[in-house]
Design a protein that fits this description.
alpha/beta; seven-stranded mixed β-sheet; four-stranded antiparallel β-sheet; globular; binds pyridoxal-5'-phosphate
């Protein structure tokens, strides 16, 4: 006899609310005060952004770092530095934040979506290789949910075709693959400091590269393509670039947050690992796959379910978990990115135009359901479960117990 689930009147598995805590403290406040006392909040005149960049680069063992205004900005800047422009193709993931593709479109290039590994939810190297054409100008590899893509193979494939790799690490601080941080495997690594990531400065972004030329190009591209390196600022710009500068207040908070990031990620790693171990071996339930050699920093974890084997629909399964007091949600993003109206209708810009999808540059592109069947299957079957550095041992045990209890109930 399996235990009665809370959805049908049983006692909820979760007996206390999930742990919470403070993300910001006196260290952030002290840095903010110091920034204000500089009497300038401009990154080029103040010291905070410079210190933040130096510390970020040191922590990652990278040669150069550029600070920006968001993760989206970081990826746009990376693409600008790489010279992505009209008619180019950039390969990326169909399960990601819009921030991975916004910069591609603002450069009037087109995203090409590679299919995913069914259980890591990261880009499949073979699918990437199949999508490379002579127009492929870059690959934006997303490390989803703190979990490394097969980045060594992807970089090998990309470089064999002469294509640079941008790593989107917005969700993957302190994630290592084969002993090396993600964000340092490819040509440029991009990070986000928006309020939902492992660390927050409200908004903001970081860029890492070992390539000096890319560094200077990125630095300029994030700042209207102005060149501030000489005595006089050179404002006669060679081509269009946005203003994605970080300000000193953001850097002040980011600098203090950096002292917290390793502990935050270590806690999430331990919690996520034990959660996944705790729910492994259940027929019809597939935990988030983490590659051998990856230290995952679990921005969240996402399981997949086989409704038939589990004996319950996904919606009822999630309802049952919620009744147990477990935080869980059906699906992740509403559909693959290429199924969003923008791509379905090929409307990147306001007005009566299908540019840049329309073949102006000889590579007309359409997006259809079924383009990335595995990614679509993932979204149809996944259940997202939060992971947080403030969650307690009890949260872990009760979450595992709740999932096992609900599964046992429907299996009978
Ligand atoms: C959050 C996020 C971004 C964008 O970062 P913002 O700071 O919100 O612009 C890009 N890619 C991924 C995978 C993200 O999760």
């Amino acid at each position: 006899m399996s235990e009665k689930i809370a959805l049908y009147g049983g006692t909820p598995a979760k007996t206390v609310p999930y742990g919470t805590g403070k993300r910001f403290g006196k260290e952030e406040l002290a840095n903010l005060e110091e920034a204000l006392n500089q009497n300038t909040l401009f990154y080029w005149f103040g010291g905070m952004t410079k210190r933040f960049c130096a510390k970020f680069a040191e922590m990652y063992g990278s040669k150069h770092c550029v600070a920006t205004s968001s993760g989206t900005a970081s990826i746009h800047v990376a693409l600008g530095a790489l010279g992505v422009g009209p008619g180019d193709e950039v390969i990326t993931s169909p399960i990601t934040d819009m921030g991975s593709v916004i910069g591609i479109l603002y450069q009037n290039a087109v995203p090409v979506f590679a299919d995913l590994d069914p259980h890591t939810y990261n880009m499949d190297p073979d699918s990437i290789e199949a999508k490379i054409t002579e127009r492929t100008k870059a690959i934006v590899v997303v490390h989803l949910a703190g979990n490394a893509a097969e980045i060594d193979r992807i970089v090998e494939i990309a470089h064999r075709h002469g294509v640079p790799v941008v790593e989107d690490c917005a969700q993957s601080y302190c994630c290592k693959y084969k002993g090396k941080y993600v964000g340092t495997h490819g040509d440029i690594g991009c990070f986000s400091l928006n309020d939902f990531k492992h660390i927050s400065a409200g908004d903001g972004g970081m860029i890492l590269t070992d390539d000096e030329e890319l560094y200077y190009k990125a630095m300029m591209f994030a700042d209207k393509n102005f060149n501030r390196l000489g005595e006089e600022v050179v404002k006669n710009v060679p081509y269009l670039a946005p203003n994605y500068r970080m300000n000193e207040l953001t850097a002040a908070v980011g600098l203090a947050q950096l002292d917290r990031v390793e502990e935050i990620c270590a806690k999430r790693n331990a919690y996520g690992k034990r959660l996944n171990e705790g729910i492994s071996g259940i027929a019809g339930l597939y935990p988030h796959r983490v590659l051998d050699g990856c230290d995952c920093s679990y921005w969240f974890t996402m399981i997949r379910i086989d409704e038939e084997k589990l004996g319950v629909s996904r919606s009822e399964f999630v309802k049952a978990l919620k009744a147990e007091g477990i935080k869980a949600s059906e699906g992740y993003i509403p559909s693959c990115v290429y199924q969003y109206d923008l791509f379905r209708n090929r409307r990147a810009y306001p007005g009566d135009t299908n540019y840049p999808f329309d073949g102006t540059h000889g590579n007309a592109i359409e997006y259809h359901d079924g383009d990335c069947p595995i990614a679509e299957e993932i979204l149809a079957t996944c259940v997202k479960i939060p992971v947080n550095e403030f969650f307690t041992e009890q949260d872990l045990l009760e979450t595992v117990a709740a999932i096992r209890k609900v599964c046992a109930y429907y299996r009978k």
